Amino acid sequence: MKKEKGEFTYPYPRPSVTTDCVIFGYDGKDLKVLLVQRGIPPFKGMWAFPGGYLQMDETAEEGARRELLEETGLVPSYIEQFHTFSEVGRDPRGRVITIAYLALLNISEVHGGDDAAKADWFSVKDIPQLAFDHDMILRVAMKTLRERIHFEPVGFELLPDVFTMPQLQHLYESILGVRFDRRNFAAKMLHLDILEDTGDRPAGASSRVPVTYRFNKEKYDLLKAKGFRLEF
Amino acid sequence: MKKEKGEFTYPYPRPSVTTDCVIFGYDGKDLKVLLVQRGIPPFKGMWAFPGGYLQMDETAEEGARRELLEETGLVPSYIEQFHTFSEVGRDPRGRVITIAYLALLNISEVHGGDDAAKADWFSVKDIPQLAFDHDMILRVAMKTLRERIHFEPVGFELLPDVFTMPQLQHLYESILGVRFDRRNFAAKMLHLDILEDTGDRPAGASSRVPVTYRFNKEKYDLLKAKGFRLEF
DNA sequence: TCAAAAGTGTTCTCCCTACACCCATGG
DNA sequence: CCATGGGTGTAGGGAGAACACTTTTGA
Hints:
The structure is a homodimer.
Chain A: E1 2-4, E2 7-10, E3 16-26, E4 31-37, E5 47-48, E6 51-53, H1 60-72, E7 78-85, E8 96-104, E9 119-123, H2 134-151, E10 162-164, H3 165-176, H4 182-191, E11 195-197, E12 212-215, H5 217-225
Parallel strand pairs in A: 3-8
Antiparallel strand pairs in A: 1-2, 3-4, 3-6, 4-5, 4-9, 7-8, 10-12, 11-12
Chain A binds a DNA duplex (27 and 27 nucleotides) through helix 4.
């Protein structure tokens, strides 16, 4: 491997390696993903997940976080590698392999005036045509998210610090695509013993004001260490 | 990207991309993995998972299968990508990213006289020191296998076509590292309705001859299509 | 005023778990 | 003859699922 005139030469051909980041948010109504509009070919003008070339001195996760920050200004509260896509023809520029990450973010923390001129949240129910094989990447990301939320408390990453039971239920319903009975959902969730009542409900408030909860991560970590298996 | 004198030049540096394959087998007693002894530096003489450089005209899974076949002569009955390892210093030869696969094989089908001179099965309870970061790859592979067997009928890939309930139970116990009550295990497993009794038990045979079963994949696929979720 | 959403308890069923004894084989 | 391993059933507890009515708010 030698460097000449800014070029890099190897005895065998090498694929390019990129990262892509599927970042989910929840606005209280729909599950959303962040897309950026491509400013350069190929697929110029089309929407795609934030991502880019992996640098030689960073791990894939560092690369995914860097690209996300550069292109959208966001720092996710959760990030996880979920699949590497390596179809031979997936990028018209040549052989490009992408390591894909799933990230979660509490949208309510997103302040206006993002760094990204061309980034926007789209409901997963209404996704535009995507560049490259990003439609497949989204399908796999959604499948992974559904699997995760069955057994890990990742849902709380998408909610504000303090939330109501109906909010939490709607989030689960949005992700899993099913409906739960309100009473059963609340009973099951409270029975896990990982939520704490904030007690912030105004004393004289009517029954229409929902009780608010907070996720107790310490309690969850303790239970998990004891071999407890969350399941939903 | 231009080709000169057998060399390949790019405007930016690129990592090498390899695949590695953690292939599990079960001999009726222990869960095993196949390792190959490295014949060249680095880590010459040490054991490692079969794998090698990804070629430009093959997907990662094709590359993993090819390397496995070349180095061990084996064709797995199940293969799944589980993680891509990208630590900057994981390979002393330079920046190498490896896409790791988990594979399963019914050992009883392995005929003597493999292609591989230096391949051997090792009990997961007794693994030698491994080359590169392959000890971490093994840990992640084991974790993935445990997760899989909770919810997918992958255990049958490790058993002969026809097997007994105690065999199946011991396999589950080997993978999950727990003990089950015989009666409860059999009841739960049979209740899933994905096994069929082979009926091959000799009519007059004593109760010491175990009843044999066969995995009914058609039934499982049918149940799965109906939204049934296997769980163990 | 009407529709939509939130609060609240009970019952039934099913699955998981714990548990003991007998028989046959092989060493 | 003894140790090992395999076959077999039941009872109790706990969690999931089904289910209706009242109240409040906002359109």
